[in-house]
C-alpha cells in the first residue's frame, strides 16, 4: 500500500466503477469498492487481489445517507484513512420530461446528486479534522452540455454535480482538498448496453465522429490522474472524455 493512496469508489459493482477500481489498483491505490451488490464487489476485489492489488468490498447504498457514517467507519477499519472519493454511482430514468413523476425526479437526483453531496461532506469533515489533503472525483457526463431528449432530469443532475465540484473546490481550497468532475461521453456498460444493441442505438453510434462507443478502459488514464495525491493545482474543473462525440 502506498501512502495517501486509498480510494473509495461508489457504483463499483459494474461498468465504469468496476474499471475505475481495476485501474486505480493497478496504479498502487488500495481500493474500497462500494455498491449494493456485494457478490459482484467480492469478485471484482478477488480479481484485483489476484493481479497483485489491494481491494476491499463495502456494502453501500448511496441513497441511504444515514448509513454513510457507519459505512465510512467500516471502510477505515478495513483500509485505514481514505484519501480519495470517486462518486461514480449513478443512473437515469428514460422518459419524456412531461411523463416524469416526482418519485422519478427524486430517484435520479437522490442517486446522482444528493448521495454524492453527503458522502463528500462525510469524508471532507474527516479530512479537515485530520489534515488530509483529500481528492474527490465526481462522475458527471457530457449530458451536462448536450441536451438529450428523454434524459432531462439526468442531464440536469450531471450539470449540477459539475457545479457542485466547483462549489466544494472553492470552499475547501485552503484545506488542500481538490474536487473535480470527470464527464464521459457514451461508454458501453450495463447502463446502456441493451440500447446500443438496438437499431436506434446503432443509428446513434453512426452519428458519432468515430462511429464508435467507448469502453470503460478508455477512462483509465484520466481517473488515475484525477485521483493522484501530490498535485493540487487542478481543482473545480470538468474533464470531458467523449471521443469528440459533442463536437
Ligand atoms: N456509460 C456511459 O455512457 C456513461 C456516460 C456518462 C456518464 N456515465 C456515468 O457513469 C456512472 C457509472 O455508470 P455506468 O455506465 O458504469 O453504469 P452501470 O454499469 O449501470 O453502473 C452503475 C453503478 O451504480 C451502482 N448503483 C446504482 N444505484 C446505487 C445505489 N442506490 N447505491 C449505490 N450504488 C448504486 C450500481 O451498483 P449496485 O446496483 O450494485 O448498487 C452500479 O455499480 C454513472 O454516474 C453514469 O451516470 C456513464
Task: List the topology elements.
Elements: E1 6-10, H1 15-26, E2 30-35, H2 38-50, E3 54-59, H3 68-79, E4 84-87, H4 102-130, E5 135-139, H5 152-171, E6 178-184, H6 193-196, H7 199-207, H8 220-227, E7 238-241
Parallel strand pairs: 1-2, 1-4, 2-3, 4-5, 5-6, 6-7
Helix pairs in contact: 1-8, 4-5
Bound molecules: NADP nicotinamide-adenine-dinucleotide phosphate (NAP).
NADP nicotinamide-adenine-dinucleotide phosphate binds at residues 10-17, 35-37, 40, 60-63, 88-91, 111, 139, 141, 184, 186-187, 189-192.
Walk me through the structure.
The chain has 247 residues and is of the alpha/beta class. It contains 8 helices and 7 strands; from the N terminus they run E-H-E-H-E-H-E-H-E-H-E-H-H-H-E. Strands 3-2-1-4-5-6-7 form a 7-stranded parallel β-sheet, sandwiched between helices. Strand 2 (30-35), helix 2 and strand 3 form a beta-alpha-beta unit. Helix 1 (15-26) packs across helix 8 (220-227) and helix 4 packs parallel to helix 5. It is globular, with a radius of gyration of 17 Å. The termini are far apart. The model has no long low-confidence stretch (mean pLDDT 97).
Characteristics:
7-stranded parallel β-sheet, 7 strands
Average pLDDT metric: 97
What gyration radius follows from the Cα positions, in whole Å?
17 Å
Helix and strand content put the structural class at alpha/beta
H and E order: EHEHEHEHEHEHHHE
Taking the sheet with the most strands, its summary is: 7 strands, parallel
Bound molecules: NADP nicotinamide-adenine-dinucleotide phosphate
First-residue to last-residue Cα separation: 40 Å
Strand content: 5-15%
Q: Can you tell me the residue ranges where pLDDT is under 50 for at least 5 consecutive residues?
A: none
